[in-house]
Amino acid sequence: MAVTTDRAALNEWVACGWPEKVAPGGKYRTVLLGQEIEVRRTGVNLFEVFECDEHGKQGRQLPVQAKYCCVFTTLGEPTRPLPEIPEFDEPDRRITGCGSVGVHTSPFRIIENFLDMAHFSFVHTDILGAPERTEVLAYKTEHRKDADEIWAIDCQFYQPAASKASRGGQMTHYAYRVMSPFSVMLYKNVFDDPTRNDAICLFVQPIGETECLAYMPLAIVDRESALTSIIDFQQTIFAQDRVILENQRPALLPLDPTIELPTRADASSIAFRRWLKAKNFQFGVYEKKAA
Amino acid sequence: MALTLYDYSLSGSCYKVRLLLDFLDLEYERHPVAFFPEREHRTETFRTINPLAQIPVLDDDGIRLRDAQAILCHLANKYDKSNLWLPRDPELFGPIMMWVMFAGGELMAASAARLHDLLGYDLDIKMARRNAHAAFRILDDHLTRREIEGGTWIVGGHPTIADVACFPYTALSNDGGIGLEDYPALRNWLRSFMRLPKFDAMSGISEFA
User: Fold this and answer.
1) Looking at CA atoms only, how far is residue A192 from chain B in angstroms?
2) Helix (H) or strand (E) segment spanning residue A64
3) pLDDT-based confidence at A67, cuts 50/70/90?
């Protein structure tokens, strides 16, 4: 696998592990955008990342940050810092990662699936959606130019069991936030408390164009549930998505709107694809072959 | 009667037990094990529950059992008054046990492939997939013969614990990058199984198959 030449992809901060993946003193190898790297845990929250050359020898040292239950690095020169997610600093939240899950598809398919509400009733039946309430009500999308983020706001969907804390169905209010082409998060109102939001992130490590690892750090308002159950809930949901994701064709994401026709419910996908196109993304993107 | 299942939602082996508990209409308490990423099953505390550091474990009024296959046998033996899930008929009992052992043996290659692809386990994925294909070939040949005889299930005229034991990792094969295109009889059998009353699809099972 050759490292990508797409500068837009190389210049992003990307997750490459979670802090507890190895014990302090340990190390592991993984691949980022086609480049093999070695991640060393030199202290409890101290990490070093190196490129490995084709013979597996240590190469250039890469920048590293441990934040939001993940370890991030970059192969290029990031044009933006890691996003601010203040929810991870609120003391009454349950903060956890969920490890990583491997998914064979484009990183952008994974991001889009996370943004999509239309599949809730069919893929997460009786949990995030009910078979008899499938309508995606109109919502707004925004390109927030100051932070260069895509947002979908005023989203709502009826959910039989919106989270581990739920004790019944509710109209869940969502806001989605795409912080980078490889990272997305959502805010959804907590069961029985419209004033608080759960913050759920999805960071994608692109190994190659159609091979990824997905990380799901959570900052959840839930005093009752055991952390094990909160993680179990999240993993159950994601494993349902994974089947759909791995069966989507083409695996690469088409940016040409004539290849996959969007409906009104796909407004966030339209905004996301336009944004990727404006960045001239090549990596992970489907190119129509000339006839 | 108090049944407690040490369980992890994404475990196909735990799913075998959950399926039979549902088919037999048994109430049970679920004790979630933080299998991934915490690897709670590898801790000293959990080893006091199962020294093999594996899930599932079933506690039935103080009888503590490990191994999904052993648990299926126990549940059918103790609670299935109909004797349909584990018939004692000498024509059926031996073949059922043979396929139950196959589920805990050869078929587990499909579980290994799944752990590699899904949770990043470091193992020889090519070998795991090759062995899984070899096991699926054997089960598919058997089910083809059963179809010719007019049968639907692995053994006999009613689903048994052999079907319950073989179902999860066959149905979850896609999770490990193993397609079932070459196994038409397997696919027919999966569809019949998914139509059973009280069947519940765990995450990763494609109901559109």
Assistant:
1) 25
2) strand A64-67
3) very high
Terminal-residue alpha carbon distance, chain B: 38
Q: b or e along A164-192 (b: 16 or more beta carbons within 10 Å of the residue's beta carbon)?
A: bbbeeebebbbbbbbbbbbbbbbbbbbbe
Predicted local distance difference test score (pLDDT) of residue A202: 98
Q: Count of CB atoms within 10 A of residue A197's CB?
A: 19
Ranges of chain B whose pLDDT falls below 50: none
Q: What pLDDT digit, counting tens, does each position of A6-41 carry?
A: 999 999 999 999 999 999 999 999 999 999 999 999
Q: Is A246 on the interface with B (CB under 8 A)?
A: yes
pLDDT tens digit sequence for B141-165: 999 999 999 999 999 999 999 999 9
Would you state the pLDDT for residue B208? 63
Q: Which residues of A touch B9 (CB under 8 A)?
A: 232, 235-236, 239
**Sign of the Cα pseudo-torsion (B158, B162, B164, B166, in order):** negative
State whether residue A101 sits within 8 Å of chain B by CB: yes
Q: For residue B10, give the nearest of A18, A104, A235 by CB distance.
A: A235
> Which conformational region is residue A217 in: left (phi greater than 0), alpha (psi within -120 to 50 degrees), or beta?
beta
Using CA atoms, how far residue B174 sits from B109, B169, B192, B209, in Å, is 13, 9, 18, 11
Q: Dig out the tokens for A216 from the structure.
A: 């799901």
**A243/B118 CB distance under 8 A:** no
> What would the 3-class secondary structure string for A175-188 be?
EEEEEECCEEEEEE
Can the peptide bond before residue B56 be classed as cis, meaning omega within 30 degrees of 0? Answer: yes
Asked if B206 and A243 come within 8 Å (Cβ–Cβ), the reply is yes
Bridge partners of residue A30, in order along the sequence: A37
* pLDDT mean across residues, chain A: 95
Residue B47's contacts (CB-CB under 8 Å, 6 or more residues apart) are B53
Which residues in A lie closer than 8 A to residue B177 (C-beta atoms)? 104
Of residues B34, B119, B206, nearest to A231 (C-beta): B34
A289 pLDDT higher than 70: no
CA A159 and chain centroid, separation: 21
For B95, B99, B160, the CA distances from B83, given in Å and listed in that order, are 15, 17, 9
What is the per-residue burial (b if ≥16 Cβ within 10 Å, else e) of A101-111? Answer: bbbbbbbbbbb
Chain B touched by A19 (CB under 8 Å): no
Residues of A in contact with B33 (CB under 8 A): 228
Phi first, then psi: give them for residue B115, nearest 5 degrees: -60, -35
Residue of A nearest to B120 (CA): A102
Q: What integer pLDDT is reported at residue B113 of this predicted model?
A: 98
Closest CA to A73 of A150, A14, A4: A14
- Report d(CA A129, CA A229) in Å as an integer: 20
- Interface confidence, given as ipTM, is 0.93
Cβ atoms of A98 and A218 within 8 Å: the answer is yes
